[in-house]
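User: Before I run my own analysis I want an independent prediction to cross-check against. Here's the chain; please return only the structure tokens and, at the end, one sentence I can use as a sanity check.
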Amino acid sequence: MPRIRQADVDEVKSRTNIADIVGERVALKSAGVGSMKGLCPFHDEKSPSFHVRPQVGYYHCFGCGASGDVYSFLREMDHVSFTEAVERLAARVGYTLHYEDGGPAPETSGRSRLYAANTAAAEFFRGQLLTPEAESARAFLGQRGFDAGAAAHFGVGYAPRGWEGMLKALTAQGFTREELTAAGLVSTGQRGVYDRFRGRVVWPIRDVTGQTIGFGARKLYDDDQGPKYLNTPETPIYKKAQVLYGLDLAKRDISRGDPKRVVVVEGYTDVMACHLAGVTTAIATCGTAFGAEHIKLLRRVMGDDSAAGEVVFTFDGDEAGQKAALRAFTEDDRFNAQTFVAVAPDGLDPCDLRLQRGDQAVRALMATKVPMFEFVIDRKIGAFDLSTAEGRVGALRAAAPIVAEIRDALLRPEYERILARRLGMDPTDVHAEVRRNEGRRRTGDAATSPQTPAERQGRGETEPGATPITLVTLATLPRTGDAALERDALMGALQYGHQLDAALLQRAMGVAFAVPALDAIREAVAQHPERQRPGWALQAVDAVREPYRALAGELLMAAFPARDEEGARASATGLCKRVIVRGLEREKNELLGEVQRLPADSDGGRALRVRLRDLDAERQGFLES
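Assistant: Structure tokens:
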């Protein structure tokens, strides 16, 4: 397969802001001069350790060690090849790629073809919604308060009743049956290959970046023997446990909210109703219960300050809705945000609530929310007859483990008092039962234990049978004046080297460092031939020998101590001068020792004294500049 020319690879990268690409999946906030941070998308964490430097086009996680450029990010997040990552970004910035030996662009393959097939299918379904056959679909939407504008906004379409309408349309566009099968758009049976979705209203399911990855479809006709709702099966790009319907539309308002709020509803029409009513942060799961992977996805979008945020679950008032609430509660402690439950009057879902009582009622639903703990406690004690002593004791035993799971030391006593009031029991007895259940708290908080090899190595652990690797990190560097100067000088060189005087930087990086790990990084910087070219620092980091490459990545991403870009350049320049002065002082001390061993009137002695005068003058010049 022809390779993309390296010049084009570099050009596409230079035209792409890595913060835009990462920001589609992770809520980023300022982390100092030229740096942004958020929750790492590669491991579960509750405090942000994932940093992005748009100026150098690099990311690094100080928690799990993940690092790389925009191509690495796409490859890890979307599991695409390097070529596919370059092609995707080239299409995004409108750049025409050229291939070695003048060869034509290779056919897009793999996951990119699945994305393309789903996009083509979404366009087909949208077009079908306008046909006469789709009258029943338009009527269904209209009865639920959705006009043509609403359908267009959410990309709603119609799958015709025939067995191969979409199949023929997409094969005519060049998609193979194998590709359509892999994308989950067609099924195979006694009839051969046929459309998976037939005679249904269809909603496109998009990932957080807005790419269509699958579909959800509701049946319309009585003779349809399939389930009421039918979703795309698991595919290489569609994992229902990791997808939230509507998140692509909600993410901007989620990240900008004050407080940041996510509203979790139960279906596609509920998401539509909420958004149209002004609750634009509503999302829903796709044919599966709300789980841990959904929480990870939401927390990255909400950001690290989500402790002040809210996640509001809206559940039907029936038994199924209550069970859904209890399932959600089992994952509650994975959130930093406060969790609530809102149940509409008469148990209406948001779609029906909007139909019967208008947009204002949907917005007002948020005001009825109660804390998740309180909701679950009420459901637990609701199963007992509180008019009897046995009922009250049984209710206490059922609810106490819930209160025991509240980790906030100030909040838990409040819920003990609430439970005591609900039961009409002595608060002391309630407190004693809660204390008895403290040792039974849920486990499984992924953030409490290392999840990646890099994290385990950082704790001195390795895989069974593996050779131990001693990782050098910023935290393990010696706490000496030399180490601090060398660390800061390398940070300045890697982050702002392309803005510094080339000769000054070369001179500073030519001075040997005292700390071996930092000296290895200095060598890579000193040997790089094009420090004025954008992206040079990434190549310098890649050139650092192991086990010091991770440390180089940390230096490239660490917050540089400066108020603004101008201050950073000035500070980096000053650090280079300090490194040079220190080198001159070392040379002077070595020469002084040699002078002691040579006769004063010898040629060697006179030459050394001349060199010492030159060193003093040069040192003074750097100190005064």
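Sanity check: The longest strand covers residues 212-219.
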